[in-house]
Amino acid sequence: MAEGNGGGAIRIAVVATSAVRRAWLESIVRSHADFHLAGSFGAVASLVSFARHTELDVIIIDSDSIRDLLLELISEAAIVLLTEVPDARSVARLLRIGVRAILSRESDPDNVLSAIYAVYDGLVLLSTATAESLAAVYGDQPLEVEDEVSEEITSRETEVLRMLAEGLANKEIAARLGISEHTVKFHISSILDKLGASTRTEAVTLGIRRGLIPI
């Protein structure tokens, strides 16, 4: 089932074999003004045909089997997948074909919302169980030096960090960058993790010391 123009909102398609699960996902999308439900499908194959002729930003797939997803690239849209935790090799393959968030099928609506905003802004979001499946395989590999362990601060995160230094609130940062407050919170959380800071003030201090914030 396809719907009309989204008027600038985030264009989302949902897929779930279960009519109940599909209706649940539809209700999440329809309940937020930022989103437009572009289509709803009971099978991945139906989505593939639709996506070839429709511009989508995010695809949400609820599935107890990832076999169909691993067969072909669905779309350039970012994919949010609700599924049972796959093995580490499957996770890697899913990330390569455009899956940007892997959540448990037991996730609540807030988790799904956060995933939509995250993948739309180019972030990757994994459930704890999925991350642990990767860590179980790759986590014991030796690390060379501490500098290689630390993730690099992205250009967008640097922008956010500099705005924190200006004393801007999340809402003000979101307005200046044209992104959602959800996404701003993700960026700030990532900044704190990467800098090893526990507060915004500490992150700004560390940012100045590392030359990320001009003085």
The number of helical segments is 10
Number of domains: 2
Shape: globular
**Arithmetic mean of pLDDT:** 82
Give the SSE order as H and E letters: EHEHEEHEHEHHHHHH
CATH homologous superfamily classification of the largest domain: Response regulator
pLDDT < 50 runs, ≥5 residues: 2-6, 142-150
Rg over CA atoms, rounded to whole Å, is: 19 Å
How would you sum up the major sheet? 6 strands, parallel
Report the span from N to C terminus: 54 Å
Structural class by secondary-structure content: alpha/beta
What's the CATH topology label of the largest domain? Rossmann fold
- Classified by CATH, the class of the largest domain is Alpha Beta
Q: What's the CATH architecture of the largest domain? A: 3-Layer(aba) Sandwich
Which range best describes the helical content: under 10%, 10-25%, 25-40%, 40-55%, 55-70% or over 70%? Answer: 40-55%
Number of strands: 6
Q: How are the strands of the biggest sheet laid out side by side?
A: 2-1-3-4-5-6
Explain the overall architecture:
This protein has 215 residues and is an alpha/beta fold. The chain folds into 2 domains: 129 residues, 3-Layer(aba) Sandwich (Rossmann fold), CATH 3.40.50.2300; 64 residues, Orthogonal Bundle (Arc Repressor Mutant, subunit A). Helices cover 47% and strands 14% of the residues. The protein has a 6-stranded parallel beta sheet with strand order 2-1-3-4-5-6, sandwiched between helices. Helix 7 crosses helix 10, helix 8 crosses helix 9 and helix 9 packs across helix 10. The N terminus is likely disordered.
